[in-house]
Amino acid sequence: MVNRKHSKVTKLDPEIRKTVHTLIVEGVTIEKIVEHLTELAGQGVIDPEDVPSKSSVGRYSQGFLSQLQRLDLARQQAKVIVERAQGDGLVMEEAAANLILNEIMKILLPENGKAIKPKVVGSIAMAISKITSSSASRERAKIDVYNDMKKRTRDAAKQIGSMAKKGGLSKQAVDEIKSKILGIAS
Q1: How many domains in the chain?
Q2: Which sign, positive or negative, has the C-alpha torsion 36, 40, 43, 47?
Q3: Model confidence over 12-47: pLDDT tens digits?
Q4: DSSP state, residue 61
Q5: 3-state secondary structure labels for all residues of the chain
Q6: Does position 183 have pLDDT exceeding 70, yes or no?
Q7: Going along the chain, which residue ranges are E strands?
Q8: Considering the domain boundaries, does residue 34 fall inside one?
Q9: Is 50 inside any structural domain?
Q10: What is the pTM of this model?
Q11: Which of 17-26, 64-73, 150-159, 174-183 has the weakest average pLDDT?
Q12: What angle do CA 166, 168, 174 make, to 5 degrees?
C-alpha cells in the first residue's frame, strides 16, 4: 500500500497532493515538503490543521516511492513483453496474465509475514479464477488459430494442385510443388 488510509497527505487537495508527489520524486527532503505545506497553510491555501507531520509525510513518501518503483518495474516488464511478443496478441495476453498472477502471489505471500484480510483473499481468489478462465480461453484460441491455419494450408495446396493440373503439370510435379513450397506431402 502507498500509505495508511488515515494519512493526512491523502486528505490533501488532489492538486496539492500532486505537488507533494512531484517534490518526493525530485528528492526534496521531508522537512522541506512539510515547510512548503506550512507555507501554503500560512497563505490560506490549506487549513493549518491539515498540514501533515514529518513522520506522516515520511511514511507516505516511503509508500509512494515504493509504489512508483513497482510501477516502473511493471512498465519495464511490459515493454519486454511487447518486444518479445512481436505483435502476437496471445503471447502478450499470456505474459500479462503471468505478471498479474505473480503480483497476486506477492500479496498472498507477503515478505513481512503479515496476515491478509479474508475479504482480500476472496478478491484475490476471484482474480485468479478470471485469469485461469482467460488462460483457458487463450489456449482454445491458440488451438483454433492453429487448426484454421492448417485448414487454410490444405485448401491452398488443393487449389494450387488444381491450377497446376489445369496448367498441364503432371501429378508428380503437383505433389513436388506441394511438398517443397507448402511443406506437405499428398
Answers
A1: 1
A2: negative
A3: 999 999 999 999 999 999 999 999 999 999 999 999
A4: H
A5: CCCCCCCCCCCCCHHHHHHHHHHHHCCCCHHHHHHHHHHHHHCCCCCHHHCCCHHHHHHHHHHHHHHHHHHHHHHHHHHHHHHHHCCCHHHHHHHHHHHHHHHHHHHHCCCCCCCCCHHHHHHHHHHHHHHHHHHHHHHHHHHHHHHHHHHHHHHHHHHHHHHHHHCCCCHHHHHHHHHHHCCCCC
A6: no
A7: none
A8: yes
A9: yes
A10: 0.50
A11: 174-183
A12: 85
Q: Is residue 26 part of a domain?
A: yes
Give the position of cell 488510509.
Answer: 5
As given in the structure block, the three cell numbers for residue 89 are 496478441
d(CA 78, CA 96): 8
Residue 95's pLDDT is 74
104 part of a folded domain: no
For 44, the domain range is: 1-85
Secondary-structure percent of the chain, ordered helix, strand, coil, rounded to 5: 75, 0, 25
Alpha carbon distances (Å) from 95 to 81, 92, 132, 143: 7, 5, 13, 18
The answer for residues whose C-beta is within 8 angstroms of residue 34's C-beta and 6 or more apart is 51, 52, 53, 54, 57
Average pLDDT of 114-140? Answer: 73
The C-alpha atoms of residue 2 and residue 13 are separated, in whole angstroms, by 17
Cell numbers that stand for 63 in this block: 509508500
Select the more confidently predicted residue: 60 or 172.
Answer: 60
